[in-house]
Structure formats: C-alpha cells, structure tokens
Design brief:
alpha+beta; five-stranded antiparallel sheet; three-stranded parallel sheet
Length: 262
C-alpha cells in the first residue's frame, strides 16, 4: 500500500500499460485451488471439485483473461508463500483418499504446464511437496522448508506424469503460442456438462490437433469424437473406456488426445 494512485501502480490490473512485464497470475491460482488465506483453506477450487467455477476456468487456459498476450501470465498454483497445493488439498479435500488427491495434484500440474503462458512449478510440486500445512514458512526451520526427496519415490506416478507433461509442452508449439492472434485463431476451450473442460489446440506438428480434457468432478462423462484420435495420456487406464466414436472420461481424470492430419 502506497500513496500512489492505483492507475499508476505496476500491478496485474495495469498489465496493459506494461506489455513487456509478466505477472504471477493470482487469478489462475485462486480459481483452480481455491482461497489460500488461513481462514478459508477448507474451501475448494475447481481442482478440488468445485465445478461451479468451470466457466471461470475457460480463460485461464488461454492466458488472455487479463493480459495483452499470453506471456504476461505466469501460471502457478504454489510458490514460496502460502501452503503448497498438496497441503491445500489436505484442508479442502480431506474426505478424498490418497489416490484421489494424487490425481488432483496431476490435474493441477497439468493446468500449469499445458496452459498458454509461462508455467511456474514450485520445487517439489512435481511430487506433492508438503510443508506440514504451514502457509507462510519464511520463519520456519529446515524441518519444514527442506525438500524431502523420499517423496519423489512415494509419489512416483505424480512425478512421472509431470515429466511427461513437460515433454509434451516442449514438443508441441501449439501449447506455447506467444500472440493473442494465434490463440484466438488456433485455441478453443469449451465446457461439457457444466463440469468438464475440453481444451483444443490446432497446430502444425505431428499431431495437428490436441484435445486436452480436464474432469475434476466425481462423475463419469461420455463425449462424442468425430474423428480418430490417439490417446496420448490418461491418469486412469483406458481399457474398455472407448466404444466406437465415444469415449468415457472417468472421475478426476486428465485425458489427452492427438489427431494427425486427415
């Protein structure tokens, strides 16, 4: 807080005046994981299953909700302050099993890595880092702030999923568009059944179309496919989930499909 009038401050609200500056996108964090202040940690974000936020998530994937171009948006869900994403789920999704929380962690990491803009991963986020539920650890000792590398083995499936998602981003230029014009032309986001997001990217790569489906809800949802897609990734096994041109998206799942030319 300063005496400077709001229109002159170098804040995210004034991003249009600072086109060469990137901003930590608090809107991205707050909608996806839910409130981060101590009194509201029990409230769920979209990743936790609050599907009332589905519509609000659409612009997060394009990186254009408050910015002139996508690289003004630093997409993140945790950093040095506030509790980690894993610890947030301990509060907001205490009813979930350990397996379900790991799925939600993968969904969160996927949002960060695959959205248009600049992805930011907090060290250890790739394997569910915890700070024992403490939100602001600047004054905590090493027993809270140190990275427990044994969690990499305990949560190997989350770590390997994050590795894969990073490689997918690197190999597909459509996940790294740099201009508003390209995103408006080649990227679309739609909602399905008021709870699921379908993020579609057109590109000039091996897969000319990527279709990335986020389902944080506890419901299974069938969707119709109008072309042949390869299944590039699914949190859940895809056995018996495809019937002709219909695919079943299971609860708390990330499904990535690729379509080649023709």
């Amino acid at each position: 807080p300063t005496a400077l009038e709001d229109l002159k401050k170098a804040t995210m609200d004034n991003a249009n005046q600072l086109p060469q500056i990137s901003f930590f996108n608090d809107q991205f964090r707050n909608i996806l994981r839910g409130p981060h202040d101590q009194d509201h940690l029990h409230e769920m974000g979209y990743l936790g299953g609050n599907t009332f936020l589905t519509d609000a998530c659409q612009n997060l994937l394009t990186g254009l909700s408050r910015f002139q171009h996508p690289n003004q948006s630093i997409n993140y869900l945790e950093c040095h302050d506030n509790c980690t994403l894993w610890d947030k789920f301990q509060y907001s999704n205490a009813h979930d099993s350990l397996t379900i929380r790991k799925k939600r962690q993968i969904l969160g990491n996927a949002f960060v890595i695959l959205s248009q803009g600049i992805p930011f991963l907090h060290a250890g986020q790739e394997f569910c880092r915890t700070k024992q539920g403490i939100s602001n650890t600047y004054r905590s000792l090493d027993d809270i702030n140190e990275i427990d590398w044994s969690w990499k083995d305990k949560n190997k499936e989350v770590f390997e999923a994050t590795q894969y998602l990073i490689q997918l981003r690197k190999k597909n230029m459509g996940l790294r568009y740099e201009t508003r014009e390209d995103i408006e032309r080649y990227v679309s986001v739609e909602t399905i059944d008021y709870r699921m997001l379908v993020y579609t990217i057109q590109q000039d790569e091996q897969y000319q179309e990527l279709k990335i489906i986020f389902n944080p809800s506890s419901e299974s949802i069938y969707i119709k496919l109008y072309a042949h897609y390869d299944i590039l990734y699914s949190i859940d096994s895809m056995d018996e989930q495809i019937a002709g041109d219909t695919i079943l998206v299971t609860p708390i799942n990330l499904l990535i499909l690729g379509k080649k030319e023709g």
